From TrEMBL:
SMART domains: CH (SM00033). PROSITE patterns: ACTININ_1, ACTININ_2, CH. It comes from Bursaphelenchus xylophilus. It comes from the Eukaryota. Residues 159-168 have a biased composition (Low complexity). Residues 142-168 are annotated as: Disordered. This is (pine wood nematode) hypothetical protein.
Length: 190
């Protein structure tokens, strides 16, 4: 076997391994995102079995966005491709009106069950609605904490050596930080 044949063989092995890893990553994302979608859809008595199939008509996607925003979106009740496309288009337009950037995702992609773009859409929704909420809550809690701390005196040392006693230590920071981390893990299904 000469150098070129060995190189081609190595390249084929590398490409096969890369594809295997990509497939595994997609499988994990699909499972994780399906859990997240179902957790939100359960509040509306809905469930998806296969993310790539069950979002195609737009009904579950509309229900998901309605649950996340508490707004009502228009929907087409027919079962034709036109109706499915209109429902998905309504969802994408709704997201764009909220200044959520959708890169190369068209209604046709979701209606046709394109896995990569469906995962991309759900990830964008997770980032926009879940993680943004967690980040906003953290910022609000930080502002609250700053207001509280600025209105309070500094802890007084509990002994004459300038050391702060445990009775003056507040668990608030740890608890809030811990709950924020748990929130991110929960969103991502860990």
């Amino acid at each position: 076997m000469d150098f070129e044949e060995r190189s081609n063989e190595a390249l084929k092995c590398f490409e096969a391994k890369r594809q295997e890893n990509s497939d595994e990553r997609d499988r994990i994302q699909k499972k994780t995102f399906t859990k997240w979608v179902n957790r939100n859809l359960a509040k509306r008595g809905r469930k998806v079995e296969d993310l790539f199939v069950d979002l195609r008509n737009g009904f579950n996607l509309i229900a998901l966005l309605e649950e996340l925003t508490q707004e009502v979106l228009p929907k087409e009740n027919g079962e034709t491709r036109f109706h499915r496309t209109q429902n998905v288009q309504c969802c994408l337009d709704f997201l764009r009106r909220r200044n959520i950037k959708l890169v190369n995702i068209r209604p046709k992609d979701i209606v046709d069950g394109n896995g990569k773009l469906t995962l991309g859409l759900i990830w964008t929704i997770i980032l926009s609605f879940q993680i943004a909420v967690i980040t906003q809550r953290q910022a609000e809690e930080g502002q609250k904490r700053e207001r509280l701390q600025s209105g309070q005196r500094s802890p007084q040392p509990s002994n004459g050596n300038g050391e702060v006693g445990l009775e003056n230590v507040n668990d608030y920071d740890y608890e809030e930080g811990s709950s924020a981390v748990q929130g991110v893990y929960m969103v991502l299904g860990f």
